[in-house]
C-alpha cells in the first residue's frame, strides 16, 4: 500500500480537531501562523491540506484581512463528482444509475414508513401537492420529483441513503441527459408519488416498498421505450445539472 501523503494526514488531523472543539458551520479556524506552529508543518503542506478540505466542502477559504478557513457542512456534491468520475472511467452508462435506484429506493421507502418524522411527512405531502398544482410546468415537475425522492431518502433515518440519493439524482437528471416528460407522463408520476406518500403516511413498510419499486420500474420502462439511447450513453462528468 502507498503511504498516505503528509497533506492528507494533516487534513485528517484538522477534521479531527474540528470535531474535538465542537466547531459548527461559520466558525473560523485558527489563522495560518497558528496552524503552522500547532501542526509543526510547512506552509505548502498546510495549504495543500486546506485546499483539499475546501474541495470536499469541509471548509471555505475566505480571502483578505480577517479571512482564512471557515467551517462548512459538506453536501453530496463532492460525492456526486467522485461517483461520476469513477463511473466515467469505468465506461458505465446512465442505465447504471437507474438500476442502482431500483435496488435502493424501495428499501428507503420501507424505512421511511417506519421512521419518517411528522415534519418530513408534511414536506413529502407538500411536494406531492406542488407537483399536482404545476403539472403543466416541467421545470417545477423536475424540482418536485427530486425533492420527493430526497425527502424519502433522508426520512429513512439512514444518512448514507440521503447522501447517495442526492448524488445519484444529481448525476441522473433526466432533463440534462435528454429524457423528456410530457404532461401525460407527469400525471402518471404524480399518481405514483401520491401512492407512495399514502403508504408511508399509513406506516405501511411493505406497501411503501412495493409502491416505490413499481414507480422506479415504470420509470425504467418508459425510458427504455422512449429513450434507450440515453440510458445506454456513457456517464460523463459535466453532463448533469
Automatic annotation (TrEMBL):
Signal peptide: none
SUPFAM superfamilies: GntR ligand-binding domain-like (SSF48008), Winged helix' DNA-binding domain (SSF46785)
Keyword terms, alphabetized: DNA-binding, Transcription, Transcription regulation
Positions of the HTH gntR-type domain: 4-74
Highest taxon listed in the record's lineage: Bacteria
Listed InterPro entries: GntR_C, TF_FadR/GntR_C, Tscrpt_reg_HTH_GntR, WH-like_DNA-bd_sf, WH_DNA-bd_sf
Name of a matching Pfam family: GntR
Ranges in coiled-coil conformation: none
Protein's recorded name: FadR/GntR family transcriptional regulator
Species the sequence originates in: Nocardioides dubius
Amino acid at each position: 500500500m502507498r503511504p498516505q501523503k503528509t497533506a492528507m494526514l494533516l487534513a485528517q488531523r484538522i477534521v479531527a480537531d474540528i470535531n474535538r472543539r465542537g466547531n459548527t458551520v461559520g466558525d473560523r479556524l485558527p489563522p495560518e501562523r497558528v496552524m503552522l506552529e500547532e501542526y509543526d508543518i510547512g506552509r505548502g503542506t498546510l495549504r495543500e491540506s486546506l485546499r483539499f478540505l475546501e474541495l470536499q466542502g469541509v471548509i471555505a477559504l475566505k480571502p483578505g484581512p480577517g479571512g482564512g478557513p471557515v467551517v462548512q457542512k459538506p453536501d453530496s456534491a463532492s460525492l456526486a463528482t467522485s461517483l461520476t468520475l469513477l463511473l466515467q472511467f469505468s465506461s458505465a452508462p446512465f442505465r447504471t444509475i437507474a438500476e442502482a435506484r431500483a435496488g435502493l429506493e424501495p428499501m428507503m421507502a420501507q424505512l421511511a414508513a417506519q421512521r419518517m418524522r411528522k415534519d418530513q411527512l408534511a414536506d413529502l405531502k407538500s411536494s406531492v401537492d406542488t407537483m399536482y398544482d404545476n403539472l403543466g410546468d416541467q421545470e417545477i415537475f423536475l424540482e418536485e420529483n427530486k425533492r420527493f425522492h430526497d425527502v424519502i431518502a433522508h426520512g429513512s433515518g439512514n444518512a448514507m441513503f440521503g447522501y447517495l440519493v442526492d448524488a445519484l439524482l444529481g448525476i441522473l437528471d433526466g432533463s440534462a441527459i435528454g429524457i423528456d416528460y410530457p404532461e401525460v407522463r407527469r400525471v402518471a408520476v404524480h399518481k405514483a408519488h401520491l401512492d407512495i406518500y399514502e403508504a408511508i403516511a399509513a406506516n405501511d413498510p411493505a406497501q411503501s416498498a412495493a409502491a416505490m419499486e413499481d414507480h422506479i420500474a415504470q420509470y425504467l420502462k418508459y425510458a427504455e421505450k422512449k429513450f434507450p439511447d440515453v440510458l445506454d450513453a456513457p456517464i460523463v462528468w459535466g453532463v448533469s445539472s
